[in-house]
């Protein structure tokens, strides 16, 4: 039984597929992420955490797609785990300590809340920053430059 | 469980007896703008907390607002010691979406360029890490060799560091015979120079005293934290993407993957020095293998047609027009094709919706994961050893903060 089949059988409501780069993926419901992460770290052998990122689509319900990438040192294969959520998902740092900074980065830049994370604070941006700039509906350059000549226009 | 406080024997002092100091962000041995919040118990590091983000410039956001070709220029600026390796990883991911063929000359030239940048990066590493430990002359010698390399990059692309030379679909230009001759001359002189660095460092008792047994990272911790590259191999894990998942024709080259076993700073030093020698071997093989021919793909959806076709072909004109007004449009999908960068597994996760701009460009930066292992290596050790440990991690803050 392959890793994808095992996860699909364990997590009801999930779907499997293969991406353009040949890496197998399984999209699980957000509440199933801890189960899948535990299985991957344990008997499935995908204990090496490689990457976590978020793909945002503001036009969709459950706008954030969390994309986890794992690697198996025995199979020498990558595996991608996906979950869609509106705002929050369980942290996987308990089973995959390498995800610590990646979850903080996703929280910082996208505003996804990872429940149970030991230290969920902003990582890259200053602590007093407002907003989450990597969201697709955040404009690229929201801060006008403070030239004295334009103060009357922008009201800085 | 948190990385900031991994399981360690508790210290016999209360936290209020600890001295908190900030190391960096403007500290010469933090190799950029890394800040470490340290709790010191005398000379012992009781707790080490890296604080990053000082170099965050929103590169991923910028890339999502550029066309696929324009985004090559921002990949240069992530790991600024390995621009060609970043270009290569980005190009491979975009090409995977297109599924396009790259001409043989470009494939071999990419290997050559990726290995030259690996040498470039390791030269800076050996120079700066020796400098941090007080060996000033090595820094000067390493920078002398790097200067020749940067001149070669300048001759090739017009830019010394931000080359943007490897692009989706091939290379920006061809390698000239004069450039190839210059590269061969450089490669012939380099092994003797590496011998010189080694004669100054490898058996130097002061150097060994500072490096051996310092900053030990066990293999299982390295794997669990996603540590990659020379750091992983110094911990005894034989894993190199050039061998495990050959890309860009690496399977045709004859080279060894240096692996050490102790996982301390000295082993990381030995692994990187051995890697430089292997890179020279790969470069020389690539120069011998380099065939004649085009360096750009004939897939007109990726690269524009040559000027000579404009006279006779309406189709060529349309392709040219479409590429320069709208940019290349990869089919919808996602791709991640990692390469073995000087610091480890570097890959771009690119999501396309079929338009001219990427939906998501995410860099999986090796330094980011490697730096997470710093508290594990530093806590319980001397504060002076921290200098050697940071140098042996070799983080590039440009790609940590992006």
Number of helices of chain A: 4
- Tally of distinct domains of chain B: 1
The CATH topology of chain B is given as Cytochrome-c3 Hydrogenase, chain B
- The CATH homologous superfamily of chain A corresponds to NADH:ubiquinone oxidoreductase Nqo5 subunit
Apparent shape of chain A? elongated
Radius of gyration of chain B: 22 Å
Task: Tell me how many strands of chain B there are.
Answer: 9
CATH architecture of chain B: Orthogonal Bundle
Distance between the termini of chain B: 27 Å
Order of helices and strands of chain B: EEEHHHHHEEHHHHHHHEEEEHHHH
Named CATH topology of chain A = Beta Polymerase, domain 2
- Give the largest interface pair and sizes: A-B, 37 and 44 residues
Strand % of chain B is 5-15%
CATH domain class name of chain B: Mainly Alpha
Architecture overview:
The complex is a heterodimer of chains A (156) and B (402). With 156 residues, chain A is of the alpha/beta class. Chain A has a single domain, classed as NADH:ubiquinone oxidoreductase Nqo5 subunit (Beta Polymerase, domain 2, 2-Layer Sandwich), CATH 3.30.460. Chain A has four helices and seven strands. Chain A has helices at 3-10, 33-41, 100-110, 151-154; strands spanning 15-18, 24-29, 48-56, 64-72, 77-85, 88-90, 113-115. In chain A, the strands form two sheets. Chain A has a five-stranded mixed β-sheet, with helices on one face. The mean pLDDT of chain A is 85. In chain B, the strands form three sheets. In chain B, strands 6, 7, 8 and 9 form a four-stranded antiparallel β-sheet that branches. Mean pLDDT of chain B is 87; it is low at 1-14. Chain B has helices at 59-64, 71-76, 83-98, 104-132, 136-157, 177-201, 205-211, 219-224, 230-234, 241-244, 265-289, 314-326, 366-372, 374-378, 385-393, 397-401; strands spanning 19-23, 35-41, 44-51, 166-167, 170-171, 333-336, 339-341, 344-352, 360-364. Helices cover 47% and strands 11% of the residues of chain B. In chain B, a hairpin with a 2-residue loop joins strand 2 (35-41) and strand 3 (44-51). Chain B is built from 16 helices and nine strands. Chain B starts with 18 loop residues before the first strand and ends with a helix. The relative contact order of chain B is 0.19. Chain B has one domain (59-401): Cytochrome-c3 Hydrogenase, chain B (Orthogonal Bundle), CATH 1.10.645. Chain B is of the alpha+beta class. The radius of gyration of chain B is 22 Å and the shape is globular. At the A-B interface, strand 3 and helix 3 of A face helix 1, helix 3, strand 6, strand 8 and strand 9 of B.
